[in-house]
Structures are given as C-alpha cells and as structure tokens.
Amino acid sequence: MRNLMKKSFQLKAAFLFAFALLVSSFAFGQDKKPVASPRDSVSGTIAGSTITINYGSPSVKGRKIWGGLEAYGKVWRAGANEATTFTTTKDIKVEGKPLAAGTYGFFLIPAEDGKWTVIFNKVARQWGAYKYDDKEDALRVTVKTKAAPMHERLVYTVDSKSFCMFWDKIVVPVSVK
C-alpha cells in the first residue's frame, strides 16, 4: 500500500512538473511587442576622441514632428524616453567652442527658421527634458539644419569631422574638431 501511495505521489508530481513546464514555455515563448522607441547608440572617432551618442530612437509614424510633436522653441531630449547622452573621451571643439571630456545630457531646441540650439548639459542621466536646468549647461552652440531624405526612425551618425541627427526630413549637422 505504501509503495502504491508513493508511486501515486510521484506520478502526480511528475504530471504537475510537466504541466508547469508546458505553461511556462507558452508564457515565455510569446512574441513580445516591439519597443516603440528602442535605445540605440553610435560611436566614432573625431580629433582623436571617441564620441558616443546613446539615444532613444522614435519613429515618425505619420505624425507631424517639427512644430507638432516636437515644438519649436522648447528644449527637447534629442531622442525618446531617457535624455540622449553624448560622451567624448578627450577635450574637443564643437562648432569652434571648447567642450571638456566627459558625458553630457544632449538636448536640442528646434527652431522654425532652421537655426537650432545644441546643448551639452552637465546632468547626463535624466528622464526626458522634464527636469532640464539651463544653469547646468556646459556648452550651447547654434547650427543650421538641412533638408534630408525621409528618415522614419531617428538616427545619429558620427564621421571624422562631425556628428549628425537625422529624423523626418531634417538633418542636424554639428561640426567637431
């Protein structure tokens, strides 16, 4: 009798284990919804410094971006979700002005006339631009945007003399030496 009860218990335990394994494989095997604005980063070398830009990459999705989703004249996180960060391993010159080595919060102020403000803020880790404080700015420069072919997803590039942000039909080029 004792052997029969032991086998019955073992059979029930094996069945429960198999059932739990089956349920968990279905639960974990489900396709996850893609992230709306995935994190991305780009790195390159300019003037002997490694430049790294880490950002959330939103999509246009048929929306009016400039002067719509992103208002003219307001500080913008230059990406999605957490503020974009900009890291330089050596001192550089951005649009001819000095920027010390370090990691910065990177922000933009879009302007309807195409003359945008580029901001390197000493507070690198922030959520969006909600607590942005201009007293913490390490550097501000002005750049002229250019028309570009449509870019559905926001992307940054780094080449030997500059970095650029492409999104919608705009490119924001920033020279570095």
TrEMBL record:
Residues 1-29 form the signal peptide. Keywords: Signal. InterPro entries: DUF2911. It holds the Pfam family DUF2911. This is DUF2911 family protein. It comes from Mucilaginibacter oryzae.
